[in-house]
Records
---
Amino acid sequence: MSTLRFHAIKETLTRKQVSITENVRRSSIFGLNVFNETAMRQYLTKEALESINDAIFKGDKINRIIADHISTGMKEWAISKGATHYTHWFQPLTGATAEKHDAFFEPVGDGQAIEKFGGGQLVQQEPDASSFPSGGIRNTFEARGYTAWDPTSPAFVFGTTLCIPTVFVSYTGEALDYKTPLLRALQAVDSAAVAVCKYFDKNVKKVNASLGWEQEYFLIDSALALSRPDIVLTGRTLLGHSPAKGQQLDDHYFGTIPNRAMQYMRDLENECMLLGIPVKTRHNEVAPNQFELAPIYEEANLAVDHNSLLMDVMSKIAERHNFKVLFHEKPFLGVNGSGKHNNWSLSTDTGVNLLSPGKTPMSNLQFLTFFINTIKAVHENEELLRAAIASASNDHRLGANEAPPAIISVFIGEQLTNVLNELENVTTGKLSPEEKTDLKLNVVGKIPEILLDNTDRNRTSPFAFTGNKFEFRAVGSKANCANPMTVLNTIVAKQLIDFKDEVDVLIDKKGMKKDDAVFNVLREYIKKSKNILFEGNGYSEAWEKEAKKRGLSNNKTTPEALKAKISTKALDLFEALGVMNKVESKARYEIEMEEYVLRIQIEGRVLGDIARNHVVPTAVRYQNMLIENVKGLKEIYGESFKTLAKEQMNLIADISKHMESINSTVTKMTNERKKANALEDIEKKAHSYCHKVKPLFDEIRYHSDKLELLIDDELWPLTKYRELLFTK
Ligand code: ADP
Ligand code: MG
């Protein structure tokens, strides 16, 4: 095994970087492989193009004859881009993307063939994807699911395949993917926000949620990554002693991007340009070999698709550069893990960002309305938001003394805190003209000015306001953004509906003016949601105590956190807004709990295997060398060998102790796994894996990492942290 390690190291040392040449301006290739407006104009009839636009902007249905026109145009375009196949591209609940390719090619008899792609094939497909998780919705042997075209996300050509973004639903109508509930949530927030906007501007007809994600990742040489069975099978290292140098010098963060990584990024960015993914920034992150990439924000559904696509593309391009991309939230102990900040805002079809302070008191009142409603939505649904980002891998970050904590709170900065404090004192009932003038001039009117100061940032907050958007920072790097985006948009939609109801009551029943009513409702909201606001250090122990006093949840593990998804409140909320019915919500809960169990189970197996079959035998081998040495010393020096061989004999004993601990803990872990596996109830099973099986990983690791320090480097079979993290 150690030969594999040294072979891998040798391979990385002889790597030649793959150089990328860019001959054209990036803007000139942007979206070249996307069936976008420009391509559609060229390949579709006017009628077909209008029909697609009506589907995108008004949600209209596309009829079969038009669908045939569209598919023909799309096929011709795709073939011109070198496509030979097409696929419905979707995001099943595995979190990854799925595709099944079919050729355009079709024999027509007499030894002849044509390229064919009909409207039916564009609109709907049955992928026979019966093995995807469905949480019991879909009996694997009977009702099948189907994929249906989502015209709001444009088709694209990747490699030689035309990819058509689709939703994946069962024949009984339940969502089997991430996209369907997201689309429903976006629709809910659209209509709820438009209704509230009407208080301020009658012309608003549509509100879009925007998402700008920031993707963190590790880039490891592929030979080194492949030499570690834990990385190959679980995406993270289960063992490995910290290197002498980690991230303590902060010399990687925002430093010069290493050359090989740079070539990879350029290659990747080129592909992103062709695919219409508007990537904009790249930089080194805190940990060695950790990087980040972020695009310009887009409409949320498209942004989610682009992030899923990007993760695929990143892995594929990495192969060309002999890299492996690690998306896991915590691939290495002792250095920072990876996240995926979700920057979120709402904007109108009239071009206004509802979370950006405006130029007039009126537009600022609109801003404050959306700002305060979002805070209240988060306050009332903090547990659900926490559940939306729960996963076995993200547990390593949240609540594990690393960015951000498992407690959800909102950071808004000092100036906005002051604004809210002022608004909290607004008179109950009708406002006097003087008070209104004062509010407009001195409170609401002053917002734009103060927000220019952008230094007021708190990196420890899981949900922070950053000037014109909220940044949901607790999302995991591996996650599909659809999940948190579905929850966030749903809770905000619900909140806006409630807000409108309350304001209308004050206007209709109490005869208040609109502004007075808005101020009155906002005042009460500020009072009610104060507990979610926190400006201090989110990583501190003091905050844990304080949050507990405030009644905020602190669900540190996935099984605990996920429960919020099936609370009566959550089930009713999703159902009432038409995002998910109860069957769908419960199915998702089951799937996520099941996935949690499977992940920990796999890690347990891999760890047991490495510890027993790689680490212990190596320890025995080294111990034998030491024993031979001691015997030799005794032979030469007789009784005085005891002084001469003292260190060796201590080592022999230490090695034995660690081996014994490893062996007995692996046995204990295997037994705990067996017990857990025997449990029928998924909650009990997940609980066992979380609290009985997983803690033993640390114990095994502790002893193995100690052995790593004791044993001859030449013999050690697992590629070490310093090799994984510092080979560029
Ligand atoms: P950082 O948090 O690293 O300082 P930036 O300010 O560069 O990040 O922005 C990070 C992300 O936020 C980018 O993806 C950007 O497109 C996105 N973003 C910027 N403005 C908005 C907005 N109004 N709505 C949603 N996302 C936005
Ligand atoms: Mg950020």
Note: The chain has 26 helices and 17 strands.
---
Amino acid sequence: AAHAKPTPPAKAGVPGIGAIIAVASGKGGVGKSTTAVNLALGLQANGLKVGILDADIYGPSMPRLLHISGRPQTVSGRILKPMEGYGLKVMSMGFLVDEETPMIWRGPMVISALTQMLREGEWGELDVLVVDMPPGTGDAQLTMAQNVPLAGAVIVSTPQDLALIDARKGLAMFRKVDVPILGIVENMSYFICPNCGSQHDIFGHGGARTEAERIGVPFLGEVPLDMAIRETSDGGTPIVVSDPDGAHAKIYREIADKA
Ligand code: ADP
């Protein structure tokens, strides 16, 4: 799309949006997107107006998680109207390409698509915009962290040592660009056996809390490994909306409260 107006300074805020927070992880598959969507819905359940910007160029998952298909409308060929899912305003890299199309965009194209979604999206008034970041700590992530005016970042990790080493790199990346760490979430923190009711720490337990204490950032909460979380996510009905009074929704609302 042609840009008629000059590009605003990279760190300028977005009018109408109160705060932009990133949900990030040191590597893929730890439940970053699942956390991002349920955190956004938890913030909404706590009374805020919330949007979500799915910036995960490698595997945009908001269309599936929020059961949204189609493409955002454009106004005068440039202004994008975010889609809506469960009351959230949503923009996703996934709306711009087919699910089967591999993401082989070069860095500058990714940044310009992201900037367009962020700054030329018709977000309206939002208290919070949650950005689902691409996993990892490479150039794309660093540039995004620099280009989006972030109020802070939430880091998602599983309890294993290896995942925590990657999470630590994520923490360091945000610190490097002066983005405050809002806290760490431990996902897949434990498993409650549906038959015997006892707790199994499949990937270990408590590593993220220890790490948070060690570096002096808030620990936001523990989310169990649970079939219902996976099924509701994959089914496009995240657990905070499909079971709002359940124990999992409560955990996510508490994380949203602390973040
Ligand atoms: P990431 O964004 O870090 O790549 P996802 O959020 O896409 O990870 O999660 C990867 C897979 O793990 C998905 O199938 C998701 O449904 C599942 N998952 C994530 N968190 C949990 C959890 N707490 N319990 C069960 N399954 C989970």
Note: The mean pLDDT is 90.
